[in-house]
Amino acid sequence: MGKAKLAVWKFASCDGCQLSILDCEDELLSIAEAVEIANFTEMTRKVTDGPYDISLVEGSVTTANDAQRIVEIRKSSQTVVAIGACATAGGIQALRNYADIDEYLGAVYAHPEYISTLTTSKPISDFIKVDLELRGCPVNKEHLIELVASALAGRKPRIPHFSVCEECKMKGNVCVLVGQKMPCLGPVTSAGCGALCPAVGRGCYGCFGPVKNANTASLATRLKANGTDPDKIRRMFKTFNANTKAFEREFSS
Amino acid sequence: MLAGIADTQGIDDLIKLLLGEGYVVMGPGVERNVIQKKEITSVGDLPKGYTDTQTPGSYRLERDLSSPELFSWAVGPASFKNSLFPAKQTLFEGKISKGKASITQKEVPSHKTCFFGIRPCEVAGMAVLAKVMTDGAYPDPQAVSVRKNSLVVAVECGRPAENCFCTSFNTGPMADDGCDIIITEITEGNHRFLIRSGSDAGYAILSRLAYKPALPEDVSARDKVIAKSISAISKSIDQENTPALLARNIGSTIWANIANRCLSCGNCTMVCPTCFCASFEHSNGLEEDFSAVRRWDSCFDSAHSYIHGGSVRTSVASKYRQWMTHKLSTWVDQFGEIGCVGCGRCITWCPVGIDITEETAKIAEGESLHK
Question: For a designed S-S bond to B143, which of B42, B84, B115, B241 qualifies (C-beta 3.0 to 4.6 A apart)?
């Protein structure tokens, strides 16, 4: 059996998750040894045709062309993994879902008539069956390595699904919410970043999106009682993972 | 028993003697505005003049520069659990070469540790956890080693926090079982410390320090400290009746009510000195390498109760119920004692301030209303 063929695809995104793959540095050579990097134009011009064993998809669907292209990628891929907040939740560009798209276009482009776009930014799973989602803005490179390592061993990848709080406590951080009344989304956010922001004394921004059973209403009530401005609370939920049920209900209500 | 009176310098003498005896002294210090345990080398490392204010979901530390008091605070977020049961620990790792696996087992630390300035509820918490980890057919090597090589210098509580309820389980504010040396800080009259031995090891150490012998008035001053602390503690859980109360109320509406507030973030389980759930993670890397890691787990994770195709507990109500009934009820069936020591951490460090003592009282109240 030959090496597994890996492809990396870009949709509407900032390329930060693709850069996280390149950021694997030491392990990048091991990845290149273990799999055939068949289609990853951010890394190499050399492109091999499909079908592919694993497709990593970065970015959200924001154009009619995107919506067609993702279907083709699904057809040519054994496994599709959506990587990053754009691919798994619509990303920061999903803020358009809560605004007037024409107003946005007029504000940004001198000739909005040349722009062909959908009115929404949606995650990959809204269009095709996705086998696995790696959250984060950007994704954690350790998760990418775990994904490849687990695929090679034929086991399930171990991706954390608990809250940022647990990661925080395991690291020995001090809770900024309880200790300083600092607004923090850690209790309702999925782990994966290693509790990066609380480790340096900042509240969690929710980059990894809502954790399972996220009780955002209770957290929002508490933040308000702690003195955080209600408008700020709404804006906290309305960022990279705005287009998720749990976060959306805290700013759209 | 030896009982002596020391001043602040006398505490320093004790720390220096312990260091001379080869102990790594883990004691209280201030880090990131909370009381933390850290390696200390002199009395200057102790949190002099600090006092804490703890309410449900809130912790504040303040400092009075003019105060000579070293121990006027209650427990901080991190218990000594991490010493017996580290948050994340590699158990073994290895490599596969030419089809053969070679395994390197991780060594168990064998250095002598002194748990210095540890609170009575912490001593009790370590005993509860040690029972889980070292009793039975498969004792945990690290926990066994730490217990065997440790010396406990406890400090009785002169200033409990609002969330403390050790008096419910006789785990404080006075120190008793499991302590080698017991310190009580006395602020009435001259600022001084009553230092007593609680074991042969403690006796041997104290006999090498030139403390003034304690007088009856010192002992009665200490008793006053304890009496004042007991009267300052207002929260409680009925140790005798709660296990059966919770067992009877699995179907209570209280669980749904708690779930409205509970974030299921797992903070209560992480800060609890006795929560012992762990996840064992075996994984391979990219280079024919593999490892087995044990890390803290929490019954608030959906993956915690995952078995062949689904999680047993999916609702927040069922997760909170699992945690609370285990701690206060089924722990007794399992280990013959209650799993709570009344340190109050789960109340303070719950981001939304859910109070286990209040919820227990509400269940009892709900039951009496139905009668």
Answer: B84
CB-closest option in B36, B266, B286 to A163: B266
Helix (H, G, I), strand (E, B) or coil at B196: strand
Q: B22 burial class (0-12, 13-18, 19+ CB within 10 angstroms)?
A: exposed
Contact A193, A185 (CB under 8 A): no
Same-domain pairing of A91 and A12: yes
In a domain, A181, yes or no: yes
**Residue range B125-179, pLDDT digits in tens:** 999 999 999 988 899 999 999 999 999 999 999 999 999 999 999 999 999 889 9
Domain extent, residue A230, equals: 164-248
Contact A169 B34 (CB under 8 A): no
Beta carbons of A127 and A133 less than 8 angstroms apart? no
What is the domain count for chain A? Answer: 2
Q: Are residues A65 and A171 in the same domain?
A: no
Domain with residue A90: its CATH number is 3.40.50.700
Of B329, B326, B320, B330, the C-alpha closest to B267 is B320
Chain A residues with CB-CB distance to B348 below 8 A: 178
**Which of B59, B286, B297 is most worth mutating to test chain A (most A CB atoms within 10 A of its CB)?**
B286
What value does the mean pLDDT take over residues B71-83? 94
Distance CA A191, CA B261 (A): 21
Between CA A133 and CA A83 the distance in angstroms is 6
- Domain co-membership, A127 together with A223: no
